[in-house]
């Protein structure tokens, strides 16, 4: 059987198990990265050499490490799960790409303070400012923030619950002239992303001022109409420019939150649960960016400890 035919047969069978956003992502990766190389080949002819060649071709395209990883993961899943593929293919090695984590642009400490001051000046009347500040202080993902409702807050316990998110996905069934994407509200990306987070005290009083008792109000708009992630990203960048701050993406607030948490001694297990990660390693390797100030502090402490130990050794001699 031709690879492309076998692949879409497997894809159709597995699709009901995946969220719409996952389906769209997998379909895009298949069309852009996997099928151009494998599409016309026979599945019975898949060899280790071809897999290694495919991996090297992906590397030559200078894709992001996440895109390259996803293509290899999807190929591996297909070869191991499809009943149209020879069983020997399940044992073929598919190594992941060399993952290089690029340094993410984040606001410096003084810029963060300026941003917080500008947001707090607007807290008494701006739901968007409240939402941005909430993300800065809790590490919320942008889709989670856009889907957050007043009914998710429990001021009696001083917590709020993350239980849904917004995704904009490609539509495959759009008639000519109709929108090619759709905004969907779904459960968060993993079970660990459904979580309860303490509300920072500085925001609890402002929450009471901004929102009434209606549990269906969306946090970012203060009414029943949603704000989609792209619109919030645009509003955030405009806010930065209006206040003379560097342009960074909204997701950098999540990275900054994780970094500041570690700098203030928060343990990684607690931090990973607040961020909604299933693995502590993800928190440590992807979301924590120690500042030069923190590195300098630990180096000074370490050098002091070493010098004291050396002095003690010499003294004992």
Helices, strands, pairings?
Layout: H1 3-14, H2 20-38, H3 48-60, H4 65-81, H5 109-121, H6 127-138, H7 142-146, E1 153-154, E2 159-162, E3 165-170, E4 181-186, E5 195-198, H8 201-210, H9 229-242, H10 252-263, H11 268-275, H12 280-287, H13 292-316
Antiparallel strand pairs: 1-2, 2-5, 3-4
CATH topology of the largest domain: hpI Integrase, Chain A
Overall mean pLDDT stands at: 86
Envelope shape: globular
Q: Give the strand content.
A: 5-15%
Largest beta-sheet details: 3 strands, antiparallel
Describe the structure.
The protein is mainly α. The chain folds into two domains: 89 residues; 179 residues, Intergrase catalytic core (hpI Integrase, Chain A), CATH 1.10.443. The chain is built from 13 helices and five strands. The chain has a three-stranded antiparallel β-sheet, with no helix packed on it. Helix 2 packs across helix 4, helix 6 runs antiparallel to helix 8 and helix 11 crosses helix 12. The longest helix is centred in the C-terminal third of the chain and has 25 residues. It is globular. The mean pLDDT is 86.
Quick structural overview:
The protein is mainly alpha-helical and 317 residues long.
Provide the descriptors you would attach to this structure in a database record.
317 residues; mainly alpha; hpI Integrase, Chain A; 2 domains; three-stranded antiparallel beta sheet; two-stranded antiparallel sheet; 5 strands; 53% helix
């Amino acid at each position: 059987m031709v690879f492309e035919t076998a692949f879409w047969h497997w894809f159709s069978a597995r699709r009901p198990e995946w969220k719409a956003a996952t389906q769209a992502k997998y379909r895009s990766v298949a069309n852009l990265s996997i099928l151009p190389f494998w599409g016309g080949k026979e599945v019975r002819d898949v060899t280790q050499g071809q897999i290694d060649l495919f991996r090297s071709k992906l590397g030559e395209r200078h894709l992001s490490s996440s895109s390259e990883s996803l293509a290899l993961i999807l190929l591996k899943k297909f070869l191991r799960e499809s009943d149209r593929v020879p069983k020997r293919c399940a044992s073929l090695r598919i190594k992941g790409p060399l993952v290089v984590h690029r340094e993410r642009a984040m606001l410096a400490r003084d810029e963060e303070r300026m941003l917080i001051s500008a947001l707090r000046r607007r807290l008494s009347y701006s739901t968007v400012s409240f939402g941005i500040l909430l993300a800065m202080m809790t590490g919320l993902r942008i889709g989670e923030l856009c889907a957050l409702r007043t009914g998710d807050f429990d001021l009696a316990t001083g917590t709020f619950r993350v239980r849904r998110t917004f995704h904009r996905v490609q539509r495959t069934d759009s008639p000519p002239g109709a929108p090619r994407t759709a905004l969907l509200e779904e459960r968060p990306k993993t079970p660990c992303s459904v979580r309860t987070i303490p509300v920072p005290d500085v925001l609890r009083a402002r929450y009471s001022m901004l929102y009434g008792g209606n549990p269906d109000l969306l946090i970012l708009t203060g009414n029943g109409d949603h704000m989609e992630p792209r619109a919030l990203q645009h509003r955030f960048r405009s806010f930065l420019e209006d206040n003379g701050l560097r342009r960074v993406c909204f997701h950098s607030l999540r990275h900054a939150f994780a970094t500041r948490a570690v700098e203030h001694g928060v343990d990684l297990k607690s931090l990973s649960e607040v961020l909604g990660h299933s693995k502590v390693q993800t928190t440590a390797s992807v979301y924590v960016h120690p500042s030069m100030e923190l590195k300098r502090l630990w180096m000074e402490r370490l050098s002091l400890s070493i010098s004291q130990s050396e002095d003690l050794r010499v003294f004992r001699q």
